[in-house]
Amino acid sequence: MIYLKSDQEIDLIKASAQVLGKAHAEVAKRIRPGLTTRELDKVAEEYIRDNGGIPSFKGYNNFPAALCISVNETVVHGIPGRYELKEGDIVSIDCGVKLNGYHSDSAYTYPVGEISQDIRNLLIRTKQSLYLGIEKASEGGRIGDIGHAVQSYVEKFGYSVVRELVGHGVGKSLHESPEVPNYGKRGQGAKLKEGMVIAIEPMINLGKKNIVQERDGWTIRTTDRKPSAHYEHTVAIRKGQAEILTTFQYIEEATANTSLMIEVNEATIA
């Protein structure tokens, strides 16, 4: 069942997304070598709760934290712990917030200190693929249009798209129908209708697409142990261009003129 949201419900999701975006920024301000992933998780949870929200992930199917923190070859669902960030790492922060009964969901991948140009390009192009997917998320299109836009762009650079993990609907539940793969064929899949709210979240690997789940039952990593990047926005389907409900504005203000800043511009679409 795909639930179409009213304008009022979309506004509630957008309010949730404001808290989410600012929680992301609080985490971004603190990313540096030597900081543990558990410390970042504490920052996010305190900010969300202090601003009236509930961390969507904590307790979801018994997940133990507010953030999924995935370092280097970890694709998604990394559990915060004692790991200390190191110079040259990349770290993906995925977070959800429930506010006034509605969820929002977004993710962002950061470099820690100086990273190689190859890995920085992976981050830039994965972020760009998110916006290319969003461009195809309009009423009358199909879910496959979104995945095709992501896949066709990143594969030009020799990257691979994770198949087993996909985007999803968002609303009163954190995960709703439809599934939103990051691969596909144009004109296929569920029809996009005004009022649908979906999370589009490219998970792109520098190496092969294959993944494995670790023994903790959550952590997903690449089998070849090459890095993976992850960016995500929650968007509402409209008759014209999709409305992006989550925001990277606060992240980008917090990381401006630092090595954490991952800029996307016209030149990256090549």
**Helix and strand sequence:** HHEEEEEHHEEEEEEEEEEH
| Binned strand content | 15-25%
Give the low-confidence spans.
Answer: 266-270
Mean pLDDT reading: 95
- CATH homologous superfamily label: Creatinase/methionine aminopeptidase superfamily
What is the CATH domain class?
Answer: Alpha Beta
Q: So what's the oligomer here?
A: single chain
Estimate the helix proportion, in percent: 25-40%
Strand order of the largest sheet: 8-7-9-14-15
State the shape.
globular
Q: What is the makeup of the main sheet? A: 5 strands, antiparallel
Give the class from helix and strand content and strand pairing: alpha+beta
**Helical stretch tally:** 5
Give the termini separation.
Answer: 38 Å
Structure, described:
This protein is an alpha+beta fold. It has a single domain (7-259), classed as Creatinase/methionine aminopeptidase superfamily (Creatine Amidinohydrolase, Alpha-Beta Complex), CATH 3.90.230. The chain contains five helices and 15 strands. The protein has helices spanning 7-28, 37-50, 117-135, 143-154, 249-255; strands at residues 54-55, 67-71, 74-76, 90-99, 102-111, 160-161, 167-169, 176-180, 197-200, 203-205, 211-213, 220-222, 228-230, 233-236, 243-244. The strands form four sheets. It has a five-stranded antiparallel beta sheet. β4 (90-99) and β5 form a beta hairpin. α1 (7-28) packs across α2 and α3 (117-135) packs antiparallel against α4. The chain starts with 6 loop residues before the first helix and ends in a 15-residue tail after the last helix.
